[in-house]
Amino acid sequence: MNKHFNKYVDEKHEETLAQYREAVLFAYNPEKETWYMRDLKNITEKAQDNQVEITIKDSNNQDIWCFKHQNSNKMSHNSMMSSSHHKKKQRLNPESSNYIEKTEPLSFQKEKIGSITFGYYGNQTYTEHDIQFIRDMKKSLSMMFLAALPLSLFLASIVAKKISLPITEVNHLTKKVAKGDFTTHVTMTTTVIEINELLQSVNALTQRLDQQQILRKQLTTDIAHELRTPLTTLQGNIEAMMDGIWEITPERLGLCHNEILRLTRLVGNIEKIARLEQQNDTLVKEVFNLGSLANAIGMNFNNSFNEKQLDFSLKTADITIEADKDGLSQVITNLLSNALKFTDKGGKVTLTLQATSNEALLIVTDTGIGLSKEEQQAIFDRFYMADPARSRQTGGQGVGLAIVKSIIEAHRGSITVTSQEKKGTQFKITLPLK
Q1: Residue 52 and residue 12: Cα distance in Å, rounded?
Q2: Is CATH 3.30.450 what the domain over 2-126 is classified as, yes or no?
Q3: Distance from C-alpha of 140 to C-alpha of 142, rounded to nearest angstrom
Q4: Where is the Histidine kinase domain (predicted)?
């Protein structure tokens, strides 16, 4: 504040000196080439009030008028402080001020008539009103600060409470999550948008972790069940043949072989899960006709659809794409296999392939049992089975759609599901062509 006020005082001081100069010129008598001494006296007395010395000389450099405080050659700081008149006009920092003399020419109608010299201490000669103004301003600012401080502290405590309470809740929740408890959620809300988003994200995270934990437990149970059945069958058949109860026949050996194949398939699915977890699958891209691939896979399913008396229609287009052919073959096979499993006799399955300007669109639609809204949200989760009993009957372990999604996303594509219970399901896949 002092810096700006000092600038204001400097500008005001320069204006005052300019006024003295104009007044001195006005006191000049051009006809007689003399000065009105009474006017000069009034000017210098007024200058004295502002602690300014004035010396006027003619064109020959002879003194016309010389006013010095206390008749000294220079105005001393001590004399200023001792003078009762000057006690009313003190500098805020007099010890840092230096005596200054400033000489300017005096001209009348472009003819030099003399010069005027101003003498003063520095440029920041404060008047009594200036000093009082600064004091009042500082006092007002101090009072405003003291009045605003309690309010600021009160508001700060409210804001801090709004921020700290939710964060404390999140801290407690994360400690429980670290201990394996995924069932707790943050129930409080706040008006701070960012904090609210944090709470929602943490709740979504714990919910997701809880779902994954349930799915992993379900997988353990399912694998134990899947392993127990073929192992029990193998054990019983082999022990019976070893004890001579059963004769070793090709049929019984074939039964044991089928159970071994079932175990092999289960282990293969577990390996797929491990690769999916570690994200070790890499794409082997090549340029091929996606329409031809879809037609070939669809033709392979014709017999299976006919045996189940399902109406299967295939509508494809010639689309050249650079992608992992084996991966997309697995995707189409998996979707058609699911449609075959979960569509009852007399239903309909459709595979459609079409292209836009920059995407390939693959749609598999069936009139099967459909999915609930909850199942649609979890259908792409690893190990999830919408109908566990039916999946086990058909040899599923709940990893097919998770693998499908992983392959599609590796191609920078997307997969969505639309379904209605007892009316059917539609899977829609988009793949970039460029």
Answers
A1: 14
A2: yes
A3: 5
A4: 222-434
Structure token digits, residue 282 = 């890499």
Round to whole Å and give the CA distance between 360 and 317.
10
Confidence grade of residue 432 (pLDDT, cut at 50, 70, 90): very high
Domain ranges of the chain: 2-126, 137-280, 285-432
Query: CA-based angle 99:104:105, to the nearest 5?
Result: 155
Residues 399/409, Cβ–Cβ less than 8 Å: no
Tell me which residue has tokens 């300007």.
357
Pull the structure tokens for residue 82.
């001792």
Question: What does DSSP say about strands 359-366 and 414-420: parallel, antiparallel, or unpaired?
Answer: unpaired
Report the alpha-carbon distance of residue 316 to residue 313 in Å, rounded: 10
pLDDT tens, residue by residue, 245-301 = 888 889 888 888 888 887 887 788 777 766 655 554 567 899 999 999 999 999 999
Element (H, E) at 315: strand 311-315
Look up residue 18 and give its two tokens: 């300019």
With a cut of 60, say whether residue 87 has pLDDT above it: no
Contacts for 412-417: CB closer than 8 Å, 24+ residues apart: 415/380, 417/371, 417/376, 417/379, 417/380
φ/ψ of residue 278, rounded to 5? -85, -5
User: How distant, in Å, are the alpha carbons of 148, 151, 164, 199 from that of 160?
Assistant: 18, 14, 6, 17
Query: Which tens digit of pLDDT belongs to each residue from 331-369?
Result: 999 999 999 999 999 999 999 999 988 999 999 999 999
**How is residue 194 written in tokens?**
């960012």
**Cα distances (Å, whole numbers) of residue 215 to 160, 180, 209, 401:** 40, 15, 10, 14
CATH superfamily of 285-432: Histidine kinase-like ATPase, C-terminal domain (3.30.565.10)
Q: What is the pLDDT of residue 398?
A: 53
291 contacts: CB under 8 Å, gap ≥ 6: 316, 317, 318, 319, 353
Closest by CA to 388, choosing from 397, 379, 380, 377, is 397
- If pLDDT is split at 50, 70 and 90, which confidence band does 410 have? confident
Distances (CA, A) of 100 to 45, 53, 77, 291: 19, 10, 13, 97
Alpha-carbon gap, residue 58 to 26, rounded angstroms: 15
In whole angstroms, what is the distance from residue 415 CA to residue 362 CA?
A: 9
Closest to 311 in 3D by CA, of 284, 347, 280: 347
